[in-house]
Write a structure and sequence with these properties.
alpha/beta, Rossmann fold, 9-stranded mixed β-sheet, 9 strands, about 30% helix, globular
Length: about 230
């Protein structure tokens, strides 16, 4: 069960419609705050917030930027602000609730994206649900993500890490890559730290291309422009 209200987007000009709806998902553990960017098409992405909580994302506001821009390409996004951002089990439960919403809204091809702690969350949620077609793990911690090799065979994996990560060493993603099955790719960005801000533009491009490719764009309807 969920309820939704429209609110102005952060930083949006006064009077302009928000690019998302605020959604509250009800769960046994409490209410889960989400932002839903609705699009036509059968593809969807769940973006999971990390230990910092709230709506800040890595790599220069990657989550907000791509959530909004991918709507025009027929891809829905659900940003999930987990209730207990330091509790792995509770965060996985919140992510599974988000996946359930996307499936009930007829999403047939789903991606999960998480940063740092949330990278472990989305990997574990992918194993438990067997739903996603791809997972993007940014600056991933290996703790809690050791099940990566049990992701469904149809699920691809993109690992992105900064070579100068001062919080979670790049060896964490190296370890997960070794455990994961194909198809998988591992990208390391020189000079990028944990938040990946130093390589934000390149990472936006990398993640955008990956999501479009793995979510089967041939099945996403192309809207005709008015002549």
């Amino acid at each position: 069960m969920s309820t939704s209200t429209d609110r102005p987007a952060r930083g949006a000009p006064m009077g302009q419609p928000a690019p998302f709806k605020d959604i509250v998902l009800s769960s046994a553990g409490g209410e889960i705050a989400c932002r839903l960017y609705e699009a036509l098409g059968s593809a969807a992405i769940a973006w999971v917030g990390g230990m910092g909580g709230f709506w800040d994302g890595p790599a220069g506001d990657l989550y907000a930027h791509l959530s909004e821009s991918l709507v025009s390409k027929g891809i829905t996004s659900l940003r999930i602000n987990v209730r207990c951002p330091t509790n792995l089990d509770e965060s996985v439960a919140d992510t599974l609730a988000g996946l359930d919403l996307l499936q009930r809204n007829s999403a047939a091809h789903i991606a999960l994206v998480g940063h740092s702690f949330a990278a472990a969350v989305v990997i574990r949620a992918g194993v438990y649900s067997m739903v996603p077609h791809t997972i993007v793990a940014l600056s991933a911690q290996s703790h809690g993500a050791e099940l990566v090799g049990q992701l469904p065979k149809h699920c691809s994996l993109l690992l992105i890490h900064g070579a100068a990560d001062e919080v979670v060493h790049v060896s964490n993603s190296e370890y997960l890559c070794a455990l994961a099955h194909e198809p998988k790719e591992f990208r390391v960005f020189d000079g990028a730290r944990h938040n990946l801000a130093e390589a934000a533009e390149a990472i936006h491009h990398e993640v955008d291309e990956w999501l479009l490719r793995t979510l089967q764009p041939s099945q996403i309807p192309v809207l005709k422009q008015a002549s």
